[in-house]
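During data preparation, a discrete fold description was generated, and the record follows.
___
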Amino acid sequence: MAHEDEGRAALEALVKRCVALAKDAGAVVRKVQAGREQGETLDASLKDPEDPRTYLTVADQRAQKVIVDGLRASFPQIEIIGEEDEDEAEDKADSSASSATLDATSTLNKDSEIDLEIPPRGKSEFDAFPADFAEVCVFVDPVDGTREFVEGRIMCSQTLIGVAWRGRPVAGVMGLPFHDGKIGKAAETPSEAAGHCLYGVVGGKLHGLDMEASNDFVSRPTQGDGASEEGVVLASSATVKEPALQKSVACIGAASTIVAGGCGNKVLRLLTGQADVALFNLASSLWDSCATEALLGALSEDAKLTALAGHPIEHVGGPGRALQNRLGVLATGPRFAERGGRTHQELAVRIQALPEVARLYGLEVAEDEEPQALDMVRDVEGNPLTPQDFGKMLGREVTSYRVNESDAVRFKQSAACRIRCSPAGSVFYKRVALRELPYAIFKSKTTPMKLLRDVKSTGVEVAFLNAADTKRFAELAQGCPRLALPYRIDSIPHFDVPLDSRFGIFLPDLCKEDGWEQYPYLPTPLLALTLEALARFHAFYWIEGTPEDSPGRNVAPHLWETGTYWHLGQQPKGQLDLIEGNWARIHKSLGFSEDVRGLGSVVRDLAVEASIRTHGIDQDGKPVQPARREPQTVVHGDSKSPNFLFKAETKEIGLIDFQWSGSGLAATDVAYSIAASCTPESLRDYKVLVDGYYAALMKAFDELGAKTAKIPSREEFEQDFLWAWVDLARIVLADHWKTITPEILAQREGSHGFNAYNKSYDVAHVFVEVTSDLLMQLAKSDAQVDAAMSSSK
């Protein structure tokens, strides 16, 4: 707790310092304005002679020096990125310094006593904010809207200071040098204005939103009768030249447009409610977007700032990092969805489909081509991927690529897409950027334990794919199974704030064009081939009885201590108490027979014993001590039909997704594969399938397994399978079926994204039928099961 308090105190001190320095910078800018009012010529030049938006003045340079020097004096370890060249700013400030300027900055060491609301401890990611400011960067724009300042529209210029942590804006300050104590209030003499400041922490409160009822920065456009214009209002530059922005403006379809130069000035109109949506010009930079994004986030979780395509903008400094927002900026206020009838993300999806926007990513897309999934063609640091990146992976020249929207899928916990390269080849890209996934954000607020579990699971997959023994198995297996070994893996895990974690896995593409097929359900012949592939996997990675340097013992320490996602150690507390109540509802809803009415109580009574026998995990989710048995093998842990691919021509079986791999019983993979992948007919063939698996396992040991491996007898394996099925029935009744209805099953029928018993009414009924049958078999050899069965009747 002390560490948490230190981090929060550090953030508070930094933001308060930034507020004080923004006010000091405002005083410097007003001092320059006072000289203009007295007839002095403004020292101004264009960085780009062809672009009037690139003005540089002595006010920019002096204000930046005040801010940067003040920050470095208090926080020398923080990375600071300012708009102006520091050496030039230093020279200009030194050569132009005067006692008046120094007087204006006399508050440098007197931080204002201001209110600052940070989300409460225990409910905020800022509990993990680093007290030493590691991974923190401050972006400074001393005079945003310099052109406005030079051309006399001084109320439209502002100072922006943004604080980013791990690339995302977390706090922002907007100084308004010429607003006289309130937003939009002008002083009679501009240089004598009191100035004003807005500031806030994301998820906290936007401070300083003080404004008069009506002025040029607050009042919405009106119709002829004086009523407010209906629909959304766009804050835009006077001229929009870039084709991507012109087409984006058309997508917005605003009812009215307010001309607002300067990025901060546009966002100010969103903060006051005068406008609802804004676009930055393509020459804007991270110092324009960092503070403004944070201020919107402090105002409301419904206010957003992203790239045009809807993905986050990474605010990261350092050598070689691009600072320009060349992918565009889209910002919306908190009432945009209400007034426009669509969310920020829905608008971004439309904009993403524009060929002109695709060209910002280096993709030359024709008007009649399929929209591109631009939000996915980025590495984990947010940089657009290039043809050269894919050329290195494929070992050949790649001149261009496509990422068609039809080749992209967005799951709850990851996104994936097929990259089609020219002149030939393709790459499968799995991208896990949790902060970009709505379900991950939801889980961070409701079940943070599960989100941390998700981060660890992706780390497990990375470890498995990178292991030397995995490469060796891929060579020995000869396509049964075929493992898609990665071309490249990018990994940025964060266990203190799991939402910040990002992974990118680039894999060979087992695609339909090359003869690979996926099926939502597996008939008996395909399910038998699947179990044969698993048998070979289990034999190669066998642990029990093998030498210390065996593949299973080598890789297991880097995977889950107990494989699979459904064991009690990976599930929330109290799950067992849900079984009987859920089953009572399911029994009625799905119309099961009276013969199985007591199934819920039987599964509940046996759940703990099944967990101990199958996973060595007790009812509290803890490993049983001492362990009843040594780990048997490495299990896949999520062996369902979507994770198997089939190539008929070569009889290869592709095996993918190793996020839940770890030590366990081979029978857990077998039971889950049958239940999660079957048709009603293949599920009824479970005895044939189990016999086939065991025969394949014995054969695989001769070919791939260690000679000293402790192999279970046929009878021992059958007992493992029976208990593994009971354990699986527990997660189905307690969790997988907690909201299931006939309508949901019908809606999911035939999809690839759910287990067979979770998308087929017929499979669901056969699953219960088989579960009842297996319990009766188990009762013949186990008194505890027999007693549970008897008491349920």
